[in-house]
Amino acid sequence: MAYSRFGTDYDRLTADFVGRSEDYESKVAEARDTGIAVVGAGISGLAAAVESVNRGIPTVLLEHRKVVGGSGMTTLGILAVGSHFQKEQGIEISTGEVIRMEQETFNYRADGARLRDMIFASADNLHWLEENGVEFSGVVDKYMADGHVPTFHWWKSSFGGGAYVNPMRETFERKGGTLLLRTAARKLIAENGTVRGLYAVEADGTVLRINAKAVILANGGFEQNKELLASRGYDPEDLSFMGAIGHDGSGHFMAWDAGGGNSMEISALMETPYNKNLPGICMRGYCQLWMGLQGRQMCVNGRGERFFDESASDKLRAFPQIAINLQRRYGAFEIYDQAVMDAAIEHAKIHSPRSWEKAATVIQEALDNGADGVWKANTMEELADRTGIDKDRLVKTYTDYSRYCENGRDEEFGKDPDRLWKLTGPFYCMKYTEPNYIATLGGVHTGRDSEVLNAKDRAVPGLYAVGMLGTELWPGYYTYGMPGGANAFNVDSGRRAVRHAAEYCI
Ligand SMILES: Cc1cc2nc3c(=O)[nH]c(=O)nc-3n(C[C@H](O)[C@H](O)[C@H](O)COP(=O)(O)OP(=O)(O)OC[C@H]3O[C@@H](n4cnc5c(N)ncnc54)[C@H](O)[C@@H]3O)c2cc1C
Hints:
four-stranded antiparallel sheet; 16 helices; binds flavin-adenine dinucleotide; FAD/NAD(P)-binding domain
């Protein structure tokens, strides 16, 4: 695929990034030989690197920042099914139940065999992490209330930096691995289609040639690459981001340049519906109002039509985001009143009292400043005038919705009767701007062992893409249905790639 459906020319971006016309070989200041070269020292790269040194394979781990950890630094935990913690606490969940739930959520679009691989290996992977120094608090839950099942295992020191990244780095170096900080992998070296190493550039511009029997790309997502974000239809200037820096899409470009398939069409953002002018109102760590309002609001598009069951977030956090994204052409709005807001503040006392104490102030300040996408009006007619929402349709939608609330039956979208609250003026209204996101998922086509595949599903020998770079388990969106699933995949894919490389490349 050369172009995205939004017109992005992937070939040109790839050529620009890797510097196809650049003669790296003539600039090489130092060459190193190794067994496996791992690019990126985040969650998945560290898992691959430790698996590799544990097997006695000479390993070089490259990280272009001066610190290791990537987005993994701020993570809180990981999924496992059947761990000793769960057994000790009498938590009984079946692997089959978790897999079926996730497959149903995706209408069976995610590869069930790979999902099964990850879930079945998850308890063993957790025990392996413990053996390599990672510590857990022992608390296992549904990530507060997001997931369907209690799979989330919290790190001991509350953040991934202390609990996972530091001990895994220590294990890697103690067992003889070589860590090169401030060293950016730039271009893969291939001979007759087989990857044999890479060129990397140090912070001072020195060019290294790393000769390796296999290269494992663990660069993470494309969070900071505006062109790749735009290639998925987002307006990068309007998106708000709450994750780590260092994700420039370099892994994508290197893999595509070496013949890897482009799976950007099913890539996704880990995102939350958002209005950038109402910052800081968070619910369970996710910034924005919608979650706190618990589906008691009425959502309409710019044509004044409702478009989903607003209480869908109770079933899965990702559902509202998907519904809202599909209204992008018309714009999407949520409308609520003081009673809904008061109930939200009351509810928030359980989860996020500090951030919600100031919710009313944040909203009032936005209104006073005439902030974009935030309004208050006494009637639906007035609201339509202010927002530009189709007036006749909005009034009719509101009349119909009020009737559903009175009757306790949503005739259009089947919303939970408990959440059918009749709204009375004055009305607050917020437009969803682009989402808030913390990470991206996917973009490089991979197989079951994280081997990079070309567009015809054939492996590019010697090349692997692990972690968020190569995941295809969340096609189009991240469900949050299996809490900690991203990290479970990061660890599993890293280990799996090394096992495969050890068998076929070393
Ligand atoms: C705030 C926050 C909280 C989260 N909480 C959780 C959670 O609790 N549980 C969970 O499962 N998931 C969570 N996630 C998602 C999780 O962080 C990611 O899935 C995970 O970090 C991705 O791992 P990775 O190895 O693919 O990428 P990363 O961990 O981001 O690592 C990629 C590394 O590659 C480096 N790199 C990139 N390009 C190059 C290059 N060319 N050369 C050398 N190095 C390079 C980067 O600097 C980075 O260090 C959270 C994310 C955020 C932002």
